[in-house]
Design a protein that fits this description.
Layout lengths: L1 E3 L3 E3 L5 H12 L3 H10 L9 E5 L4 H12 L3 E5 L8 H9 L3 E3 L6 H12 L5 E4 L3 H9 L9 E4 L2 H12 L7 E3 L4 H4 L2 H18 L7 E5 L3 H12 L3 E5 L3 H9 L3 E2 L2 H7 L2 E4 L9 H6 L4 E5 L9 H7 E8 L2 E6 L4 E5 L5 H4 L6 H23 L8 E2 L3 H15 L8 H7 L7
Bound molecules: nicotinamide-adenine-dinucleotide.
Nicotinamide-adenine-dinucleotide binds next to helix 7, helix 9, helix 10 and helix 15.
């Protein structure tokens, strides 16, 4: 472990060269964020702002961090999941002088220690993925709240937590729900999670997915992406849901829909993507086939109840990286990937850079907007805000341009037609 008190703690600083190469690769695939970096490099609109971030330390996150720094911000960072930090990337950021506290494989106490360290730097903006940083501020460091202008939140589970806090009157500063932006939720969660979840499963198992019964729990944004990509690889996809409209959409997409109690008996690979706990529990493990593979791609490791599996096991051993074989008392084997944590980040590299380009452009613009409103003396209420709709269109237009696509625009007559309620047959 390498440590510089008050600045960083990372696994191995000597990995920094490899990390820098990975970051460079991501930069070459994130044209929208890089255009924003170029736009604000000279004017430094974030000068004087201190951002504490708690978000998976991946090569794409490093591009975001470096963009904040180029725009003038002081940054202090921690990872938002004990298994998602890429140690070489963390080392590269530390070597660059960024304050960062993150390493792969930390325990839960270390996890909160890292958050506490980033808070010592007294942020006036926060950036979350899962709301653990904001929750820590509210729960343990209320003395920091008067200085904090606002925050941003990256993921569905974090937005749920924050909306619950706001509803209970417990949220003490405004937060922007970056997750709910169209250019985030409909792309990152769908195509990013779709591809990277299968990437994680393949790296941890190397099994053939074609012909397998793949059970996807949850047909929301992430689940739909995973189901579509698994179908593309030739799997027989089964969807489980609790929301009738989502289940209906899955059936009309051509997926089989059934209750987990039924799916548990026939699934070869199980993937949870719900954001809800106890989706797979003891009674499901009891009927699973010998050799079944179980993993999760939702934010927390509570979707697959591993305590239940632990209580049923005779022994457990790691058979490959991120792949543990549980031998049950009746002799069946069940394989659990990445300890039930986000399989795409723990066993693979998380979402591809191209899709994080839009998510992190939203993060950057939302932090910038909070800073600008503050500078203008405009105070927001202590609630969860959506991003402005024009931000979505601006990011999508930039993305299309960088991809080389040209689209049509409405003519003046078409705009008039849209607002003419008397036009009919
Ligand atoms: N792995 C990643 O990199 C990644 C990326 C983005 C989001 N996430 C996380 O993935 C989770 C899902 O996010 P989302 O954007 O798809 O949310 P979403 O709200 O769009 O979809 C969740 C779906 O799960 C369903 N569901 C809830 N409980 C269920 C249960 N017990 N059984 C079956 N279905 C159930 C809901 O009805 C809903 O349709 C969240 O925890 C989110 O934070 C992970």
């Amino acid at each position: 472990m390498n440590e510089k008190s008050g600045i960083y703690k990372v696994k191995d600083l000597s990995l920094s060269k490899a990390g820098a190469m990975r970051i460079e690769w991501a930069e070459s695939r994130m044209p929208v964020l890089m255009a924003l970096r170029e736009q604000y490099r000279r004017s430094k609109p974030l000068k004087g702002f201190r951002i504490a971030g708690c978000l998976h330390v991946t090569k794409e996150t490093a591009v975001l961090v470096k963009t904040f720094v180029e725009a003038g911000a002081d940054v202090s960072w921690s990872g938002c999941n004990p298994l998602s930090t890429q140690d070489d990337v963390a080392a590269a950021l530390a070597a660059d002088g960024t304050s960062i506290y993150a390493w792969h494989g930390m325990n839960v106490n270390d996890f909160y220690w890292c958050i506490d360290e980033t808070l010592k730097f007294k942020p006036n903006l926060t950036l979350d993925d899962g709301a653990d940083l904001i929750f820590t501020v509210h729960n343990k460091h209320q003395e920091l709240i008067p200085e904090i202008i606002g925050g941003t939140e990256e993921t569905t589970t974090g937005v749920h937590r924050l909306r619950a806090m706001a509803k209970a009157g417990a949220l003490k500063y405004p937060v922007v729900a970056v997750n709910d932006a169209e250019t985030k939720w409909d792309f990152d969660n769908v195509y990013g999670t779709g591809q990277s979840t299968l990437d994680g499963i393949l790296r941890a198992t190397s099994v053939l997915l074609a012909g397998k019964n793949i059970v996807v729990a949850g047909f929301g944004h992430c689940g739909r992406g995973v189901a579509l990509r698994a179908k593309g690889l030739g799997a027989n996809v089964i969807v489980t849901e609790v929301k009738p409209t989502a289940a209906l959409k899955a059936t009309l997409e051509g997926f089989r829909v059934m209750a987990m109690d039924d799916a548990a008996k026939i699934g070869d690979v199980f993937i949870t993507a719900t954001g809800v706990k106890d989706v797979i529990i003891d009674r499901h493990f009891r009927v699973m086939k010998d050799g079944a593979i179980v993993c999760n791609t939702g934010h927390y490791d509570c979707e697959v109840n591993l305590k239940h599996l632990e209580s049923m096991k005779k022994r457990v051993r790691e058979v490959r990286a991120d792949n543990e074989e549980y031998t049950l008392k009746d002799g069946r084997k069940i394989f659990v990937l990445a300890k039930g944590r986000l399989v795409n980040l723990a066993a693979a590299e998380g979402h591809p850079s191209e899709v994080m380009d839009m998510s992190f452009a939203n993060q950057f613009m939302s932090q910038l907007r909070l800073a600008e409103l503050h500078r203008k003396g405009q105070k927001l209420e202590n609630k969860v805000y959506d991003i402005p709709p024009e931000q979505d269109q601006e990011i999508a237009a930039l993305k299309l341009k960088t991809m080389g696509y040209r689209i049509d625009s409405l003519t003046r007559e078409q705009v008039k037609y849209q607002s003419d309620f008397s036009a009919g047959t």
